[in-house]
Amino acid sequence: MLFKRLLSSARTLGDKYIYFGNPSLNRHSFLRSDQQFITNAIKSKDAKYLLFNNLLPIADKEANKFFVTGYDKLGPQLTKEIDQWLNFNNDPLSTNGARPSLLVHFLGLSEKNGKLETARESGFQYKAYHGTPYFAIDIVKSSQVLKELESNHPNVEPLVTREEVNKHLNNFEASIFAQGKMYLDWLSTTQFCRGCGSSVVPINAGSELKCTSTKEKHCPVKEAPVSNASFPRLDPVLITCVVNQDKQVLLTRLPKFPQGLYSCIAGFIEPGETVENAVKREVWEEAGLHVQRVEIIQSQPWPFPANIMIGSVAYVDTSELDLLHDMELQDARWVDKEIITDIVYKGTENNDLTLIGPGLDFGIANDKTLATNLYKYAVDNIL
User: Is 101's pLDDT higher than 50?
Assistant: First the structure.
């Protein structure tokens, strides 16, 4: 029975990529260190630059899409600063720790229906590799590029909230945004080596950071036997739909949630924990329930700021709640199959991205979240 359910889960959840989780691009991570490839790709007439301003994606709100530009399409200042960034990327240690004004990360080459675009379709080819090159670029430290953007495209503006991202970016764009935002955030906030405190500089098209300390200075990062560079941090987070023996699901609410919003239990996975043990700990701490079994279902990148959400179903053999351990929850309630089914399939989305059930004053997050995918999985396969 469990095996059949896991197969059903793969079909149900695999037919449609979760929001932020569409494998939109082939990242070609092995080409990030190929300086000639990066030079050709970023200067290609077919390259697409997705611009950020202080980590906020810049969008054309009227067209409901990411604003896209290229090497010589926005203005001479952007072209000039891309050239400066290229010089830096080709020789990052020559600047004594100084960084270029632009933050840049190579995202990958585009794909169509699971296959790379042909050279004729995209116009870009490097050795055996074809496709449209995509780059994420944050221009917050370049006042001249910002002026070019405002002058030539007065109608574009940054998407400030998750609600705006949901509204204006489809899953293809949202998934590229998630990748770009997490890398740019890391490049922006990581200025010094965690091993010795020296300044760090981006290398390999914004995918790694290199310590600039001299050979005479001891640095445990540079001297590490496996890797002598630093990579982005990604924090694992559990999120779990709790199901009891009465075939009910648990809805929980934090004080910070918008009015009427309930969700799954969630929390950070601590060092030394398996996902399953973290689920058991978190469910007991927040709801006082003892989990008998954990079934891992699906995951979701979450770029606020840099998490990977690992979704599961937690099975408990009692319904008695105790919210007084860490007192994190404002409320928790069990709901029957009929109620959660109506919310999932008949709910109306409000301005807070909450699906409010018919005739109810509460609901769950919209279908672009892992929490609601887990509730849907429970409705379709468990309850």
Answer: yes
